[in-house]
Specification:
With about 80 residues, the chain is mainly alpha-helical. Helices cover about 75% and strands about 0% of the residues. The chain contains 2 helices and no strands. Helix 1 packs across helix 2. The two termini are about 40 Å apart.
């Protein structure tokens, strides 16, 4: 199966970005005891959005495909259970 050449970049809404920037800010304070500026928050979020989001998306697709395959196996076995002796 070929890959789509025109894969659309995953984009977050502005409200999602704001929430994630707050999470980044809180994580830096909790884990490192450091304040992180808005520019650094945006840079980290952009990096995650560009590099991490596609990996997570692809993993979700793989998980969905595996789940669907299991359901189809169940359907196949359930079908043969309907046979009469």
């Amino acid at each position: 199966m070929g890959r789509r050449e025109d894969f659309v970049q995953i984009k977050l809404s502005e409200s999602q970005k704001e929430k994630l920037k707050e999470e980044i800010k809180a994580m830096y304070m909790d884990e490192r005891g450091e304040e992180i500026g808005i520019i650094e928050q945006m840079q980290l979020l952009d990096l995650f959005e560009q590099k991490l989001a596609p990996l997570i998306y692809n993993k979700a697709l793989d998980d969905a495909k595996a789940w669907f395959a299991r359901m189809m196996d169940n359907l196949d076995s359930d079908y043969y259970l309907l046979y009469k002796d």
